[in-house]
Amino acid sequence: MRLKFLLICLFIFTLGFSQNTAIVTGTVTDKDMNNETLPFASVAIKGTNIGTNTDENGKYTLKVPAGSHTLVFGFLGYENIEVPITLAAGETKIINKSMSSTSVQLNDVVIEQQINREKESALLVDQKKAVEIKQSIGAQELARKATSTVEQGLTKISGITNVKGRGIFVRGLDDRYNYLLINGLPIASPDPDKKIIPLNYVSTSIVESVDVFKTFSSNLYQDFAGATFQINTKKAPSRPTTVFSFGVGYNTNTTFNDFYTDDSGSGFQNFAGYTGNSREIPNVYSEDNPLAYNATPEESANLFNSSWTPKKSTAPLNSKFGISHGQRIKEWDKGNLGVFLSFNYNNSYLYQSGVERRLSSEGNAQQDFKSKQYDFSTQKSGLFALNYKIYDKLDLTFNTIYLQNSSNAIAEGLGLNNSYTQLNNTPFFIRDTKYTENRVAIFQVLGDYEWMNRKHVLHFGTSYSDGKNSVPDRRVLVAAGNGENAEYITTNGINPFKFYQELDNSNINALVEYKIGFDHNEENDQYQSNVKIGYNTDLLDYNFFNRTISASFNGTPDQAIINTNNPEAFFQNGFANGFLRYRNTPDPTMDSNINQFINASYVNYTKQWEKLLIEVGVRAEYAIREIEYRLQTDNVYDPHRIEKYDPFDFSPALNIKYNLNDDTNIRLAASKTTTRPRLREILPTVYQGGDGNQTVGNRLLKNSTNYNFDLKYEIFPSNSEVLAIAAFGKLIQDPIERLFRSTSVGYLESFGNFDKAYLYGIELEGKLNIGNVFKADALKDLSLGFNGILMDSESKTENNNNEFGQITNKERQLQGASNWGINADISYEFKSGENFNSTFTLIFNTYGKRIYAVGVEGADDIYEKPINQFDLVWNTEFNDHLGLRFTIQNILDEKTLFTQDATKEIQFPDAYSNVYESYNLGVNFGLTLTYKL
Description:
By secondary structure, this protein is mostly beta strands. It contains nine helices and 53 strands.
């Protein structure tokens, strides 16, 4: 009874409150810009905490108590406008206002206005005012282009491409030359093959915006050549917001067709993308037991819980879901406390078929496989953010970020493999069952403290991340032939094997920066110059373990017959009859450790004149790297060898911006930076491909030294438009590049420092409203975005360089660099009534061919050919709550294609093909429903 009474009272109170409120709405325009709409102007009720900002179209809506009030319109550098209003209960009043700028010149350096960085127009304003050359993409544009991960979103920025999950390429420089910050703090990648956390781990639903810094400033880490990416995660919104989303996807190659997976874990574990306990390494082969262990056949039958036979099923629709909620927990006159939570999951079933070859200089195929790949992958992103703010004093943020990715993959190849082994002219068969899990948990504390009217600002932060890469119980099956009458390969010491890999990393880092302002301008209350002094420390620890366990055969030829469709039956029969067992050999290289400790300090001076802005700074980094390892010839109990590398580098940086007028900038930037290798490139451990191919790191790799130069001209016709052209050049000393060498059983992938490389080119960028361009109101809802790059590169090594004496082309393009690239999109927005809003966007991306790997011993370089990516996105908002997104990606059904030309006379021209690798991708259809509370 009391509960009913309470609910009735609450209902009456809510009803009474709603009946005593009113709505004021309208549009704010810029009088100085022919009454163009003014985004992010503040609109507030004087003397209260009731307020909002205009959206990207200059519109606002406020719910206020009935009665008489004063409505205040404000925008930094504009004259405040006060409008007395009287509102009756339940009334909706429209008040439009046009604002004029003051006569005071704005200071581009020290503007600290808080804007909504999710909006495209807000990020353009930020780009216009920034001193460095950068581009940004926010949540609004990420949604408009239907990008579910940060990696997909970045490919919409000029000079950036991505193919087949190998990371981001910026201006032709691959993942090795990039660096990642999350909220200004570095994060170590748990994946040994990636320099930065693979950005397909990061769901766009936890992202406010992503900044791409293409020029260096002293407050950025010195590891810079392609770009530094900064992911800015979401914070608590000003009003309570809850969003639910659910989506499905269809791939023309995969969905509703036969699909194969490793079924070692439970059904929920496999769907969720977690390793579980069923793939754990047996104790007798763990890191605690470095010696050889030959299990008996009886033991072998019970050592592992996994099966050599993959599970066959029908691939369902891809799926994804997410939930997020944010609100202010507490508000008071001097500050607020807010929270934001988000969790997102998505999975993908992908089947691809194609060919893989390894070619000689005459164009002969040493390996020639018809291949199939099945991959069930999952991605999870979680964010918990707590924001505490005392206005004009303190801003604190506590972030917990969780990123996890899994891949349940099976790859099969059937065909010629002369470089490995061949029996009775029977085709070689290989099946690689590989489960991979990467995860990282990140804990951050970030803050800004200011005093004396922002003359003094202290920026600080610290982060701890714990990462793990796991490849548990990988199974590589090799046989002569396939099907029921295949033959278990026992020649040349080759056996099917199991493989385990674990990489644990921890990363602790911190920053502190003090900024002091000078030359205070009383008219605009801004400082015309400032000095920043900062310190960074970064401690990174990697612990690597791997173990190979062979399935040793000791039987008759009749017992070697295996059915590759059900190999588990063969193994169980072999254990039961005593001709199969698991064994390993002592491996001194099974574990290694890499420690890196960076201490860095920097100073930065910025000065603003009426039209000229100059930033000059220098950064000093002392980066100690120690590799603890053993050689294959060492004893497993020998102490680790230590390879130490401790360069001390200075990185000067200059950024200049000159305002030709209020809408036009010229920028100049120059800097010296370094590039550090990926983990795999320095790991002194052989990674087995299973088909005879291997990868081994080079512990003696040096950092590259980069000299960077940029010149940019940009025009901002409006708050939502930009036209820009930029010229850039880079000289890289000791560039790191990938090499392929032939061996007696396959190919060896390795890495080395070449002598030097050059890279130079031109970038174009544009975002335009077609109606404004042609002065036609009928085209106001049509917008065009485009960016492109034209460039050239050259990499050289001297003839007397012994390390690269077998390089086929001593002068060539830089590995990974394309000569050109294009990204373009055109959008049409349709509105009906107050709430219905629909946007159609066509997106096209492509790039020129680039070198994937450098050829050796007379073989030509391996080239990656372009993929012409053409997508359609249709976003519809039916009302304030319900939205629907429909996508078609890779409409042209493009394939990946890698080629390697012959450099000598072709011996068998009728059988010749220069295709090194090619896979089909399929067309992807997606449908996502969102509901907002």
